[in-house]
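Hi everyone, sorry if this is the wrong subforum. Our group has a chain we'd like a structural model of before ordering constructs, and none of us has done structure prediction before. Sequence below.
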Amino acid sequence: MNFIKQVNYVFAMQFNRTKGFLVFFAIIQIMVSVGIVIGFTYLFENPDSNSMLFLATGAPTIILTMTGLVILPQQLATSKVEGYIEFIRTWPVNRASVIVSDTLVWLMITVPGISIATIISQLTFQPGFDFSWTIVPAFLLTALTCIGIGSGFSYALPGNAAMALSQVLAFATLMFSPINFPIDRLPEWLQLTHHVLPIYSMAEVMRSAMAASTFAVDWWHYVNLSIWCVLGYGGAIYILNKK
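Answer:
Right subforum, don't worry. Here is the predicted structure as C-alpha cells:
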C-alpha cells in the first residue's frame, strides 16, 4: 500500500471515529470566531477603522492557535488516556500518514470558523480587508505550524502534562501575545522573545495577507514559521515512531 492510500485509509478511520466530535468542535470554532470578532471590540470605547482592521485580521490567528495548541492537544491527551494512541501504533502504516490524516481533519474544522468570522467582520464593521495572493500560503503555513507544534508536544508529553501546557498556551496567547495589539506595547525582553517564538510570526503573515495595502511582513516571519513547522511535525513523527 503506497503512502497516499495509507493516508486515505487512516483518514477514513480517524474521521469515522471522531465525526461526532468534529461537528461539535466546528460549532465551537464558529462560536469562538464570532465572539472574537464582536467581543474584542468592547475593549475600545470608540474603536477607529485601524483598530477594527487590526482586530479583524488577528481573529484568524487566534482561531488557529486555539485549534492547534489547545483543542488538538486536549483531544490527543484524551486519546492517550483511552489507549487509542497505542492502538494506532499497531497499524501497519507509515506513522507520518497518521499525522497527515489528523492535519487534514483539523484543517477541515478551522476553515468554517475563519470564513464565518471574516464574513461577519466585513458585514458588521467593514474593516477594509485587502486580500493578497499570499492568503493561501499564509493560512496553510500558520495552520500547519499550529497543528505541528500541538501534535509534537502532545505526543511527547504525558496526557495530563499536555493538557496543562495547552491551558497555559491558551492564557499566554490571549493575554501576552501580540495578535490583537501592537508588539511595541510589550516589554523589550518579551518583544525579543516573540521574534523567536511562532505566534507573533503567525499574526504577521496572516495580517499582511488579509490587509496587504496596510500591513507589510518581513520575510523572517515565513522562515521562523517554517522552522517551527518542521520541528513540530518532525518531533511528532519521531515520538510516534518510538516504541
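For your construct planning: The mean pLDDT is 87. The chain has nine helices and no strands.
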